[in-house]
Write the structure tokens for this entry.
Amino acid sequence: QSVLTQPPSVSEAPRQRVTISCSGSSSNIGNNAVNWYQQLPGKAPKLLIYYDDLLPSGVSDRFSGSKSGTSASLAISGLQSEDEADYYCAAWDDSLNGGVFGGGTKLTVL
Amino acid sequence: QVQLVQSGAEVKKPGASVKVSCKASGYTFTGYYMHWVRQAPGQGLEWMGWINPNSGGTNYAQKFQGRVTMTRDTSISTAYMELSRLRSDDTAVYYCARDPENSGSYCDYWGQGTLVTVSS
């Protein structure tokens, strides 16, 4: 069981918008930054969003992040087939004194 | 450009140890913490710990305390992760990843991963 909770899968049609939720607690999301990673099949994770809502250089602005209390969300607009991947949320956990991940969400572009 | 290049795949027997290397280039190795994250087949990501390449200080996930050792060789800009007393459920891809703020906040560059298979 992952410390952060994500839906196992989401799906949406091309050119539409999808959101992926990530739920935690006061010791992780509630008190620390949330980060999102994209993992394409067979590849290493790639940083997508950091500090809740910041985009690294080179990441498309179709991706956006938000946080409220102990929950966070990743939104992807204008869906494209190449967005099909697994998406993971992550944060530092003060109680565990370590990093924690969500279980991952598989995005299917219909 | 920043690159993290990991050692090749390993096959180990239960009870053995494995040591995975991660060679950094394109930045000052001692300036940034290195994290280790693993992913079992078909499963999610699991944080294992970090090492401060400058001081050698470490912070391990409680789950791996006593079985994992993270070290570094600053002369060759390489970090190592050694896992002992291997079990079948340690079969996974192991990644190293750079922490740009030395705070455990996030990792901006990742190695390509090293598959460790534990099988009798």
